[in-house]
Amino acid sequence: MKTLTKFAAAAALASAMFAAPAALASDQTELLARASHTVDHLKTDPAFSVAAGMIHRAKAVLIVPRLVKGGFIFGAEGGDGVLLKRNGHAWSSPAFYTLGSASFGLQIGLEQAELVFIIMSDRALRGIEHSEFKLGAGAGITVVTLSSGAEGATTGRGGDIVVWSSGTGAYGGLTFNGSVVKSRDEWNADFYGHDASVPGILANKVHNSETTRLQRNLATVW
C-alpha cells in the first residue's frame, strides 16, 4: 500500500512539473498561429502595396497579432508578439516578445489591433534584440504608423520602425512613444530549449518545427 501511495505521489509530482511547460507551449503555438493569420490580413490590406516596398528593405519584423488597449481616464495597452529577422532570402526562427505601455488621457472603451512592426534600421533591430527596449525619440528611434487606409499609407515613409495596424474599437490612433518591447525569455527557453537566446534564435541556432508555417507564410509576402 505504501508503495502504491509513493507511486501516486511521484506521478502527481511529475504531472505538476510538466503541466506548466505544456501550457506555455500551447500559448506559444496559439500565438504563432495568430501571427500567421495577421500576415494573411496584411496581404489583403489596401496599404500593403506601400508596405511591401519597405519590407523588401526591412531588417526584421515584429508581429503582434492582438494588442489590447482599454480603460477609463487611465489606459493601458499590451500584447504578445514574435520577432523574425531577415536572413538572406528567408526568415529566421521567431523569438517571443511582449509589448506594453501606459498612457493618460480621456480614453473610453476598448480597442484591439493587429500590428506588424517593420524594422528598417540596424540600430532599431539592435535595440529590440536587447532584453528590454523603450520605443520613441528618447531612444533615438523614430516610429511612424502606416494606417490601413490608402491616404494614411503615404505617411509611413522614413522611420526606423514603420508600424502597420488594423484596429477596431471606440477610439483609434495608436501611439508607441514610451512603449516597452521585451523578450519573453521564459517562453523562448521552454519552446526552443534552455540554451535559447534571442540572438541565437534569430541566427537559426535553435529550431522548432511549429514555426515553419509562419516562416513560409511570411516568405510568400516578401
Distance between the termini: 64 Å
Q: What's the helix count? A: 6
Could you tell me the number of beta strands?
A: 9
Number of domains: 1
Mean pLDDT across all residues, rounded?
76
Question: Major β-sheet, in short?
Answer: 9 strands, mixed
Class derived from helix and strand content: alpha+beta
Q: Output the radius of gyration.
A: 19 Å
SSE string, helices as H and strands as E: HHEEEEEHEEEEHHH
Task: Indicate the proportion of strand residues.
Answer: 25-35%
The level of helicity is 25-40%
Q: What would the principal axes of the Cα set say about the shape?
A: globular
Low-confidence stretches: 2-23, 148-157
Give a brief rundown of this model:
The longest helix is centred in the N-terminal third of the chain and has 42 residues, at 2-43.
What do these coordinates show?
There is one protein chain. The chain has 222 residues and is of the alpha+beta class. It has one domain. Helices cover 36% and strands 31% of the residues. The chain has six helices and nine strands. It has helices at residues 2-43, 48-55, 122-129, 185-192, 198-202, 212-221, and strands at 60-72, 74-87, 90-91, 95-104, 110-119, 132-134, 143-146, 161-169, 180-183. Strands 1, 2, 3, 4, 5, 6, 7, 8 and 9 form a nine-stranded mixed sheet that branches. Helix 1 (2-43) packs parallel to helix 6 (212-221). It is globular, with a radius of gyration of 19 Å. The termini are far apart. 36% of the residues are buried. Mean pLDDT is 76; it is low at 2-23 and 148-157.
